[in-house]
């Protein structure tokens, strides 16, 4: 199977983890932003996590430099366009991009301006390429529930205009769901769909609570349901979809090697899995690369790929018309 030419769908990719190194250097030079180096190879090293990365927290350090150049409307628009362009050029037909608006307020932008700028960049790409997109607003688990309320309230006006869902991300501690029950309940009331990062760092119970307490329809990663029977069972019974990211999961040490990744075991047991990059730049990957890893490690067939593709279509937060169109590609 040639995954570079096959249609693909991505449901889990972070905007600030997917910048072109050339763009970081270009913006920094133009705006006088200090970088550790202006050499492209050096910048690549600074913003790419090695496979030998020690932990999720070490992986998350790679986002510091990209955020320096994501503090203006023009830059956010350009960076979003380029991410969709890169995806379209490898035949990704639909992509849901997530970002945390509160990370881009350092130079005075308000949340509404930030969301609108990212929407503009997405629409620019949709007008130029055969790709459709939607946006997911991420709330940082390291911030208070009040800040999550702020994102939910300010993002509300963009529902139905390209924003589709709410997310919780950043470093994972046990029991984090309990801190965000009210803002996520309000988001559901407003019409946001819900996907939650959980079970990425050895805490399978977080997945159980994300489903039971927050109403998560999808789970970002969810690797550690393998060690929590209750979480495994609820994901399987409720057909909660896992957004799995093989390279990232090796880097953050959710698994030590690709061969140990549970994605194919989950798939064979009837759990709905999807394949995603997580962060194109930080993980130095593409959708074709992630699919190739799974194909090579687990010898997946075209029928397996087709099933995973259709899982992604069904689990997407796209409208019915878009879903019908996406189904016809495969």
From TrEMBL:
Molecular functions per Gene Ontology: 2'-deoxyadenosine deaminase activity; adenosine deaminase activity; zinc ion binding
Top-level taxon of the source organism: Bacteria
GO biological process: adenosine catabolic process; hypoxanthine salvage; inosine biosynthetic process; nucleotide metabolic process; purine ribonucleoside monophosphate biosynthetic process
UniProt cofactor(s): Zn(2+)
Pfam name, any one: A_deaminase
NCBIfam families given in the database record: aden_deam
The protein, known as: Adenosine deaminase
Organism per entry: Neobacillus massiliamazoniensis
Record gene name: add
């Amino acid at each position: 199977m040639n995954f570079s030419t096959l249609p693909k769908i991505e449901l889990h990719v972070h905007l600030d983890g997917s910048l072109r190194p050339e763009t970081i250097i270009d913006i920094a030079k133009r705006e006088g932003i200090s970088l550790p180096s202006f050499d492209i190879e050096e910048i690549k090293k600074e913003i790419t996590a090695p496979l030998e990365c020690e932990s999720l927290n070490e992986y998350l350090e790679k986002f510091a430099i990209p955020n320096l150049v994501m503090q203006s409307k023009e830059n956010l628009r350009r960076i979003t366009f380029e991410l969709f362009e890169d995806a379209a050029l490898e035949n990704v037909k639909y992509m849901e991009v997530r970002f945390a608006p509160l990370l881009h307020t350092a130079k005075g932008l308000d949340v509404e301006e930030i969301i609108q700028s990212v929407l503009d960049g997405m629409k620019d790409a949709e007008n130029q390429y055969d790709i459709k997109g939607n946006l997911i607003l991420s709330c940082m688990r390291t911030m208070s529930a009040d800040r999550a309320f702020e994102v939910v309230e300010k993002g509300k006006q963009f529902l139905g205009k390209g924003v589709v869902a709410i997310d919780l991300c950043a470093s994972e501690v046990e029991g984090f769901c309990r801190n965000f029950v009210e803002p996520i309940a309000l988001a559901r009331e407003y019409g946001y769909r819900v996907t939650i990062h959980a079970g990425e760092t050895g805490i399978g119970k977080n997945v159980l609570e994300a489903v039971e307490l927050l109403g998560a329809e999808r789970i970002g990663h969810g690797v550690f349901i393998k060690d929590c029977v209750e979480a495994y069972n609820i994901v399987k019974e409720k057909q909660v979809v896992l957004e799995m990211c093989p390279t990232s999961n090796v880097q953050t040490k959710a698994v030590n090697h690709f061969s140990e990744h549970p994605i194919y075991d989950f798939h064979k047991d009837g759990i709905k899995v999807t394949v995603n990059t997580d962060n194109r730049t930080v993980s130095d990957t593409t959708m074709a690369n992630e699919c190739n890893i799974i194909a090579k490690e687990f010898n997946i067939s075209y029928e397996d790929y087709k099933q995973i593709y259709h899982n992604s279509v069904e689990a997407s937060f796209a409208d019915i018309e878009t879903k019908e169109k996406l189904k016809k590609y495969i």
